[in-house]
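hiii so um. not sure if this is the right channel but i have a protein structure encoded as tokens and i wanna go backwards to a sequence. like what aa goes where. can anyone help
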């Protein structure tokens, strides 16, 4: 079976964690142990979020950006692909010493006219209290939005259109490599009329890019692994209940938070609508989610019943 597993950014650097190499290594090692059975028994593609990491890099770059020497989000996204990919490779080889694994820098085409560029929604970086967030927004020209009990910086999140390195990903899979790719949703690029590639200031949603990737590599399963055990109906209320099994139509009849579960549900629905089986749940439940005994599983039609 070919499986695409998308690791959430918070699964690699949790809220409140120190952004140190030691912390990230420990979290990646936990992910590697959870994914070891997949890598041993199936063909596997691993994607990952980068919201906390790219936000912290952008924060460090902010002083340089004032004099025009700072790096854009496309370059910072590429940096996080290399950093997190290296940590995942290292951890996977530690768990399975004979494993062939490769990280591929991945560019994802977006539309320059995407309305997301005029309405930033993608949270990156740490969570701030409201006074700090508003001060930073004023000082640095950021857009901010509520995130849980605090605020985070938000940036444009255009729709992924095409994965430029798809032929290389297919070739690596054919050679039985575990492939780490499309990190952080991929480096966002646009193509001009002559076909020249240009990076843009944005962060693509990792789950939507993972669904696009899973569809085009012919994966049978897409697992979106995060820090919650399932998708919940009436989340945040006393009536909250986990949704264990649902069709695409049933999931799309609900409303989920745009900054958190909403993109995951939409990504899962897109993949399921193309004929695959998608699931959302906690990293530590990965094997049970694959077996359909944990998390939320989403398919196209009633035959699933």
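sure thing!! here u go:
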């Amino acid at each position: 079976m070919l499986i695409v597993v998308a690791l959430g950014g918070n699964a690699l650097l949790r809220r409140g964690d120190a952004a140190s190499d030691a912390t990230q290594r420990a979290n990646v090692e936990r992910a590697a142990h959870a994914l070891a059975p997949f890598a041993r028994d199936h063909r596997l593609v691993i994607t990952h979020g980068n919201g906390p990491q790219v936000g912290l890099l952008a924060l460090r770059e902010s002083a340089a950006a004032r004099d025009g020497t700072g790096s854009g989000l496309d370059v910072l996204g590429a940096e996080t692909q290399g950093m997190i990919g290296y940590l995942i490779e290292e951890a996977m080889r530690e768990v399975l010493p004979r494993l062939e694994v490769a990280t591929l820098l991945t560019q994802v085409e977006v539309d320059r006219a995407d309305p997301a560029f005029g309405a930033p929604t993608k949270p990156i970086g740490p969570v701030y209290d409201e006074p700090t967030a508003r001060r930073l927004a004023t000082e640095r020209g950021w857009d901010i939005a509520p995130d849980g009990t605090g605020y985070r910086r938000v940036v444009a999140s255009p729709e992924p259109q095409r994965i430029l390195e798809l032929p290389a990903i297919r070739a690596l899979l054919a050679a039985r490599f575990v492939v780490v790719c499309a990190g952080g949703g991929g480096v966002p690029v646009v193509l001009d009329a002559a076909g020249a590639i240009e990076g843009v200031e944005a962060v693509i949603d990792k789950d939507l890019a993972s669904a696009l990737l899973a569809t085009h590599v012919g994966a049978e399963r897409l697992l979106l692994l995060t820090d919650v055990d399932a998708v919940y109906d009436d989340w945040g209320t006393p009536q909250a209940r986990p949704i264990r099994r649902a069709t695409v139509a049933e999931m799309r009849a609900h409303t989920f938070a745009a900054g958190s579960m909403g993109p995951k549900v939409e990504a899962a629905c897109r993949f399921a609508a193309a004929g695959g089986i998608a699931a959302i749940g906690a990293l530590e439940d990965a094997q049970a989610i694959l077996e359909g005994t944990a998390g939320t599983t989403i398919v196209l039609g009633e035959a699933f019943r």
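oh and The chain has ten helices and 17 strands.
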